[in-house]
């Protein structure tokens, strides 16, 4: 771009005249990161011409040369379109004004009035002072071009501009958004903040609604404190603005067309939101405080873990609200909520995320301290887990239990800095300014719906009591609590404000307090927007009241299976397969035609095909699920020419259920929690999480302990999640052998989940189908194989799939004469084939091998039937690959003792007890493996 062209371009641009000096700001950004400026500006800076014999060649060119160059082109068109060369001195001031505007956008939040207690000691930001920019008292009455500052027109007196900047960026709202790289998003936020100076334009009715929310928040806590003194309730007092905030979010979301909202939160304020937002009857809560419970609801849980569902009326239509149940592992609920939201969006076929929105409420200490927050942010825009953004609220009471936040809890300026990893805008807001709270609440909803990205509200407040009501906070935070004792409540401050401005009378305020107290006394719902639930989008009734042995029809016609098998092997000729994959699909074609027996991968895929043909949904996630960690599944086929993908499972029928197979983010905890949440909101289909290696499941142990194994018993939450955990001892060491079977069996009780170890392709086919076809929804934990995926004996016929069923116990397959058997070996999984091959090699006809394919719930009836022919046998052995203190031996032997004949003995054959799950030396592994097989078969 030569000089004449650039001059013409500047003349025609919105930056002509003195405003063109705004380019220095752009130029500085360009020097830091060329991609941070728009394409047209980047073109200008990339093609800066030679000035006075020296090239202005960014980034080496001096700023003064750039300024001088653009000044020489700047034309002042502010007066009737007339053009003249700008006054250099005035132009230099203009540059400084624009820099000052930008400084407030970048750093105004650091001097905002955020802390209700005034305890934050923050140094003044020098860049926010006009003097820093060379602007003095003589400039205050001068008019300057305000660039893109969206308030007061194109020009403003400097004094008015400074007041507007302070009001917008240094008031009760501290807006952090300049870390966002997308210019459109930044401009959108500026257009919402700057014209109003961050002030909500509220009607009397809206102000009254906010006060009602504060009144309810305070009234609820005082009522509970008086009625149940000393009882734990994790009071919201100090953060009372959370109640009107949530109500404003619901109203704004309803007007935008949202139909469902799923909420996740920890303890603080939970009881308050249950009563004052979701509409739980206070009388029901009081009964819980009094210790009453319903025996048929299982073991139950404490009050501040409880979930709830209701409908909430807004001017835009009713919303269905679901507050997720949450254990004390605070932040782990976040991915559970996201998974539930994704399931609801998928069911509604909502790709934008508009119809279902998540809200997660965090503690300031927890959001920085728990890694699951980072994991959930990381998955927020990924293909398999995106949900159109979430609204994340931090109830920032500035203390973590007894820990002072700034010194000990984090290494960042704000607890919300973690959100910058996904460029989420962050709106810090003073909780004692409820109108500012309402403003950012609406802003957050609109941003999320516009850009489909996460947005964070940092509600800066305080905690009037200790961590719970039994704590004495002044023992550890004496100065903070001395100040809190003297500080008026948020309700009092806002009520006084409304009375002073004439929006409400003192009698009106008193009447509101009395009315709410009377409503609590009556024990009925206190939320006027509450409506009886009619918006359920899924029906769980077909799955309620059934146990794991409920009858179902497992078989399918052979013709249907053969047709599906043919479709699964039909790959377009234009889709070039990798050579090994092509060989695999050629083998599958032979299996489909009956020329070969079915291997594991094809039988598994056929199970999915039958479910899809029944118009049920299949969802599979894991770090290598498309291909399969062990190169067996190949459900997603990659074209070797252009990288496109083809899923045969999406082409099994003209009308079929949807299937998603996603290679997930590198996480176990967040992904498993997401899939748990998905399965709790989608009972009709098959939801699978697959570990890359079963050993890695221990990274998600909190999800297993707090949700998968106990969710039904604690909360009555049914869930049909299936977990595929590769398990088997092949000499790959202590982190690639064991899926920690013993941990799952330890957690088994009350028929809470199924633990299966399938050993044939037919078994995995029937097991997966059973999980969908049977009208029972409980988690299925599968110790899935590795070497068996291609084992020559681990094959099945198409007839076994068509006419069979899942066998909880598989009897002896060789033609052993039961009368000659004097030793019965029980086992599960891969070791069976090693026992079988060794027995055949040794010609042993006195030993029977019985496979237990479902370890829990233990199949007593099937085992009794199998052992009927061995009642004369006195020697029974349990054989396992795992060390003695691991695997099934300790947790399941009582079931074997119950099954064997009276007077018989039960012994153990397996590795000795070990602190590690497996050895790391191949030679030692082989020796141990041979020894346990010998012990089981009574060989020396």
TrEMBL record:
Q: Which InterPro entries match?
A: 2-oxogl_dehyd_N (IPR032106), 2oxoglutarate_DH_E1 (IPR011603), DH_E1 (IPR001017), KGD_C_sf (IPR042179), ODO-1/KGD_C (IPR031717), THDP-binding (IPR029061), Transketolase-like_Pyr-bd (IPR005475)
**Recorded GO terms, molecular function?**
oxoglutarate dehydrogenase (succinyl-transferring) activity
For this UniProt record, the keywords arranged alphabetically read as follows: Oxidoreductase, Thiamine pyrophosphate
Q: Which domain of life is it from?
A: Bacteria
What are the names of the required cofactors? thiamine diphosphate
Question: Which positions fall inside the Transketolase-like pyrimidine-binding domain?
Answer: 598-791
A Pfam match:
2-oxogl_dehyd_N
In short, the EC number is 1.2.4.2
What Gene3D superfamilies is this protein classified in? 3.40.50.12470, 3.40.50.970, Multifunctional 2-oxoglutarate metabolism enzyme, C-terminal domain, TPP helical domain
Record family assignment: Belongs to the alpha-ketoglutarate dehydrogenase family.
Its biological purpose: E1 component of the 2-oxoglutarate dehydrogenase (OGDH) complex which catalyzes the decarboxylation of 2-oxoglutarate, the first step in the conversion of 2-oxoglutarate to succinyl-CoA and CO(2).
Q: What is this protein called?
A: oxoglutarate dehydrogenase (succinyl-transferring)
Q: Which organism is it from?
A: Shewanella corallii
Task: Provide the organism lineage as a comma list.
Answer: Bacteria, Pseudomonadati, Pseudomonadota, Gammaproteobacteria, Alteromonadales
Gene name?
Answer: sucA
């Amino acid at each position: 771009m030569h000089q004449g062209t650039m001059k013409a371009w500047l003349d025609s641009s919105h930056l002509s005249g003195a405003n063109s000096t705004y380019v220095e700001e752009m130029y500085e950004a360009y020097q830091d990161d060329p991609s941070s400026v728009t394409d047209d500006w980047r073109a200008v800076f990339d093609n800066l011409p030679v000035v006075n014999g020296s090239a202005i060649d960014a980034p080496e060119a001096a700023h003064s040369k750039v300024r001088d160059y653009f000044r020489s082109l700047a034309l002042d068109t502010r007066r009737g379109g007339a053009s003249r060369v700008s006054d250099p001195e005035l132009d230099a001031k203009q540059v400084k004004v624009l820099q000052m505007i930008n400084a407030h956008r970048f750093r105004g939040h650091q001097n905002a009035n955020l802390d209700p207690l005034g305890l934050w000691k923050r140094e003044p930001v020098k860049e926010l002072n006009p003097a820093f920019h060379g602007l003095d008292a003589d400039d205050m009455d001068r008019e300057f071009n305000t660039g893109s500052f969206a308030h007061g027109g194109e020009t403003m007196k400097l004094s008015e501009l400074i007041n507007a900047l302070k009001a917008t960026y240094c008031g009760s709202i501290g807006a952090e958004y300049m870390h966002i790289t997308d210019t459109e998003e930044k401009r959108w936020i500026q257009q919402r903040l700057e014209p109003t100076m961050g002030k909500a334009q509220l009607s009397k009715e809206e102000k009254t609604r906010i006060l009602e929310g504060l009144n309810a928040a305070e009234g609820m806590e005082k009522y509970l404190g008086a009625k149940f003194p000393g009882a734990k309730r994790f009071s919201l007092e100090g953060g009372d603005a959370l109640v009107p905030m949530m109500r404003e979010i619901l109203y704004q979301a309803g007007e935008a067309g949202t139909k469902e909202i799923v909420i996740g939160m920890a303890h603080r304020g939970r009881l308050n939101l249950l009563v004052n937002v979701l509409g739980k009857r206070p009388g029901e809560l009081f009964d819980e405080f009094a210790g009453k419970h319903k025996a048929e609801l299982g073991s139950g849980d404490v009050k501040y873990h409880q979930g709830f569902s209701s409908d909430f009326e807004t001017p835009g239509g009713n919303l269905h609200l679901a507050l997720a149940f949450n254990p004390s592992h605070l932040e782990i609920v976040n991915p559970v909520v996201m998974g539930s939201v994704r399931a609801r969006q998928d069911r509604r076929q909502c790709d934008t995320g508009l119809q279902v929105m998540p809200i997660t409420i965090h503690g300031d200490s927890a959001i920085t301290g728990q890694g699951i927050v980072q994991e959930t942010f990381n998955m927020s825009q990924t293909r398999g887990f995106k949900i159109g953004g979430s609204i994340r609220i931090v109830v920032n009471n500035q203390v973590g239990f007894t820990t002072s936040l700034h010194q000990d809890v984090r290494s960042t300026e704000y607890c919300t800095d973690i959100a910058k990893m996904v460029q989420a805008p962050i709106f810090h807001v003073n909780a004692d300014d409820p109108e500012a709270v309402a403003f950012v609440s609406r802003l957050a909803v609109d941003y999320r719906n516009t850009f489909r990205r996460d947005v964070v509200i940092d509600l800066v407040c305080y905690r009037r009591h200790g961590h719970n009501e039994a704590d004495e906070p002044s023992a550890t935070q004496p100065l903070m609590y001395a100040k809190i004792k003297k500080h008026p409540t948020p309700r009092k401050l806002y009520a006084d404000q409304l009375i002073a401005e004439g929006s409400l009378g003192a009698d009106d305020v008193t009447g509101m307090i009395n009315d709410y107290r009377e409503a609590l006394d009556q024990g009925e719902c206190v939320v006027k927007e509450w409506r009886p639930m009619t918006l359920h989008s899924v029906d769980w009734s077909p799955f309620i009241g059934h146990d794991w042995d409920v009858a179902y029809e497992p078989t399918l016609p052979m013709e249907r299976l053969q047709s599906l098998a043919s479709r699964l092997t039909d790959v377009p000729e234009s889709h070039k397969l990798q050579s090994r994959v092509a060989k695999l699909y050629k083998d599958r074609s032979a299996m489909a035609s009956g020329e070969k027996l079915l291997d594991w991968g094809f039988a598994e895929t056929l199970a999915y095909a039958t479910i899809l043909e029944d118009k049920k949904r299949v969802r599979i996630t894991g770090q290598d699920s498309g291909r399969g960690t062990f190169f067996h599944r190949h459900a997603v086929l990659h074209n070797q020419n252009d990288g496109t993908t083809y899923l045969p499972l999406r082409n099994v029928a003209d009308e079929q259920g949807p299937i998603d197979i996603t290679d997930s983010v590198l996480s176990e905890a967040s992904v498993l929690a997401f899939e748990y949440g998905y399965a709790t909101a989608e009972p009709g289909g098959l939801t699978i999480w697959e570990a890359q290696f079963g050993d890695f499941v221990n990274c998600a142990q909190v999800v297993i302990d707090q949700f998968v194994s106990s969710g039904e018993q604690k909360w009555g939450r049914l869930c049909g999640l299936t977990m595929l955990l590769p398990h088997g001892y092949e000499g790959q060491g202590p982190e690639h052998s064991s899926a920690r079977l013993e941990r799952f069996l330890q957690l088994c009780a009350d028929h809470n989940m199924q633990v299966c170890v399938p050993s044939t392709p037919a078994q995995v086919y029937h097991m997966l189908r059973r999980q969908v076809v049977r009208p029972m929804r409980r988690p299925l934990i599968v110790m899935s194989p590795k070497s068996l995926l291609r084992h020559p004996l681990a094959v099945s016929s198409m007839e076994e799939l068509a006419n069979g069923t899942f066998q909880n116990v598989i009897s002896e397959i060789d033609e052993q004469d039961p009368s000659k058997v004097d030793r019965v070996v029980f086992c599960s999984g891969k070791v069976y084939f090693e026992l079988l091959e060794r027995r055949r090699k040794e010609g042993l006809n006195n030993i029977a091998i019985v496979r237990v394919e479902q370890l829990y719930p233990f199949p007593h009836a099937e085992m009794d039937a199998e052992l009927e022919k061995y009642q004369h046998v006195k020697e029974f052995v349990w054989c396992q690959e795992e060390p003695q203190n691991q695997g099934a031996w300790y947790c399941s032997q009582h079931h074997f003792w119950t099954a064997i004949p009276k007077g018989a003995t039960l012994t153990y054959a397996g590795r000795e007890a070990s602190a590690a799950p497996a050895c790391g030396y191949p030679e030692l592994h082989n020796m141990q493996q041979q020894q346990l097989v010998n012990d089981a078969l009574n060989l020396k």
